[in-house]
Give the backbone structure.
Amino acid sequence: MAADSPCDTGAVARWLVEGARSAAQPADVLKQLCEQLVTCGIPLWRVSVFVRTLHPQVMGRRFSWQLDTGVSISEAGYERLDDDIYRMSPVVHVFNSGMPLRRALAARDCPIDFAVLGDFRAEGITDYLASPLLFTNGEVHAITWATLKPGGFNDAHIAGIENVVAPFARITEVYGLRRSASILLDTYVGHQAGERILAGRIRRGDYEAIHAVIWLSDMRGFTALADTLPPGALIELLNSYFDCQVPAIIDRGGEILKFMGDGMLAIFPVASDAADLRGACGKALAAACEVRAKIAAADALAGVGGGDGERFGLALHVGEVLYGNIGGGNRLDFTCIGPGVNLAARLEELTGKTRHPILVSGEFARHCAPRVVMRVGEFSLRGFGTRQPVFALAVGTG
């Protein structure tokens, strides 16, 4: 192909406008885009997409295609915002200016005004273009194009690339919105509840009855701390406290449903067979033991504790719960209710009175291995007509 021959990327642009339907995932979109552009005669070596995300821990994601290795995906945390190399990069320049930036690195007089350009030149990159991806809400993201071709991109190559940037931005925005919706639901209502909501289970009154291990915990002495600690310190304390619990639950297949001040409601869903029920109880117990150890060892929680020195109370129960949409008008909550949740709440109240930080119901104890739990006694629980058997973890458990 002659150096100035046109690169007709019209078909590629139309493929993007029509939704890139042959690609199932964002990485597939980038892979197929780059392969089609190479077929059109554009000498791409590496193409990277930088998209900032709405995520509590991840600042942004990078999708990078390379001619010889395909597509890789990486994430950057918010600490990158303090990294001088990142802040002084061409990509951030594009984020801030909303304008494209090109550096013809093969030219002797090409300015190396960003430190990373020296690295690119050392790799053999002869031309580099950073294009803004302009979203309809005003956000600016970026895609970069690099080549190893002697002499770099010609005008036809640049025109061919520019022809696909706007339709690619639309595809990127659609995938970004989907991911943001999923992340927000995962963050605020939990993964399984989020999947149900995205599947359309959003009408008030939609529910399902599920069998689950119910986890209900709270912090000892929180009310007194809330009256004495500054707001910032109180929030930091709660976050440290929940950091001791959430990973242990999530790692074992549990679902965090709700934070209620210092309290937390979680479930471990159970299938219909007895083996799965025993497994769910075992996972909940393992999580409880891990949480107990972490809370006891957490220096940040040194000021927390009841009169018996325990820092938290936890109740575990097995029962049927109603899992669904409850609320008024267009303000709904996707949560659990039912007698099982009520029993767990009453058990949690007993943890301080019995001086056992972890209590389990008789129904939960039935599915535990021998000698894992010990009987504490029978108790009259508010809202229940018969006395309920209550068990604690046996000495040495965990």
About this structure: The first strand starts at residue 46 and ends at 52. The chain has two domains: 10-188, 192-393. The domain at 10-188 is CATH 3.30.450.40 (Beta-Lactamase).
